[in-house]
Amino acid sequence: MPHVVNGSAALEDFANAFRDINRKVCVDTYANYHFVEKFGDHPDAPSIVEPKLLDALNRVHVARRTGRQLSDNEKREVFETHFLNEQTHVVGPCLQAAVDSFDWPFVRAIAVRPLIRFAYFGKHQCFLFRNFACREERKKKGLRAFDIAASAGWNNVESALKDYDILPAEFFANATDYYTKLRSSLLTA
Questions:
Q1: Strand partners for 116
Q2: Which residues form the domain of 79?
Q3: Consecutive sets of 10 residues in the chain, 189 residues long: mean pLDDT of each?
Q4: Which residues partner with 128 through β-bridges?
């Protein structure tokens, strides 16, 4: 077993890599959604957003503009397209780099076996990963999380998101206005 000079620093770096992945996923999701909303029909859009994701997000925006609710099957298709794209371009490469650079085999073996529970799962449901670095396992459990959310009901999922107390109440009152104000404040800063 290799000697770890500063184990707590290595563990902190590994945890920070996971936090950074979550931030990148949020930025990627936000940027793709709003880019496609504004420029999804532009002929150069497929050179910026992967074509399958572009098509999925364009369907979301067409439905929103026409006031049509997507069915749960349509929502799942959009989610799966987005989820696989983020796993390929953001999560997978960043996660692999973090695992590869974490030179503490025993703790790494524990760290890649997280227990994940979302607020909408209910009291006794969670996912125990055998290896979070495994793309196929993340895919399977990510799609299962969507199915659980659909079964729980989207209003219950939204309510559970409020319980995380990360997004401000203003976001839940009117997400479009919140985005507009946030964008304006960032551009004027």
A1: 127
A2: 7-112
A3: 63 91 94 96 98 98 97 97 97 95 89 91 90 96 96 92 83 86 84
A4: 115
